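Fresh eyes needed here. Have a critical look at this protein's tokenised backbone.
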Amino acid sequence: MENLKNFFLEFINARILASNGIPYYLGQSAESNETSMVSLMAFASLGMENEAIPQKILKRVINNLNSNGSIGVFPSASEDGLWLTAHAILVGELYQRKPDFEKSLEFLLNRKSVTFPNYPEVTQDNSLVGWPWVTGTFGWVEPTAWSLLALKKAGKGNDERWQSGKKFLLDRMVSSGGWNCGNKMVYGNELLPFLDITSLCLMALDGIELNLIQKSIDFVKSNSLDTTSLYATSLAKMALDSLNYSTDDLGKYILEKLNGSEIGAANISHISYAVMSLGKKRMFLS
């Protein structure tokens, strides 16, 4: 663990900008709120919340919050990517800074996807409310899953919004197991499930009856190493860890990737997820 702490501290220290924000990639000058917040989650998974660098990043993230508590993908595009407000709430909980993110929680609770009439060509319940990528649009799986994680971590797991989001995710689950990014079937054709999104959904639905999601669990177990995506494998490990499955093989694979020569040019958020997957288990869920 100490080696991992030192690796990640050096990795972020070499990439942090003068603003104390983090870009998506080494050499970029534009800070990404998403990358900053995911790096904070990774530091928290290693028990490094009080270190100087994460505290600087945390201060920058709080500074980048909009007046209503939401946060965009870039400080220069503060109204774009407001689904990332869920990340801000998770950061507030992990760093015990709940008061700084009270407006963020209120914003997320009030943010709703629009609904549409049901059509026979699309086999799903369009009346269910989730969370959108963009304000005033239809609900999607990934922002809904992140929102459920944030609400439950903030103690809102019994709130009506959490319950409606749970129904939304269960409705969008592919019948053979797993989740696509939006619909589960179009014009009679079942859509392909994605490993990263399915893993995220399994964590978001923590505590649900296993028989409702067993096919999705089996999908992650069968495909967790059948990908070149470090991001997807890291989320798969986190999901299987949360369900108490053995993930030694995934941990070994992720460590090998972190020790690889291509790490320097990698997406910084993806490296943060990899580190997160090797840190504290059930970080989002306990």
Q: What stands out?
A: The chain has a mean pLDDT of 95. Strands lie at 131-132, 139-140, 185-186, 189-190.
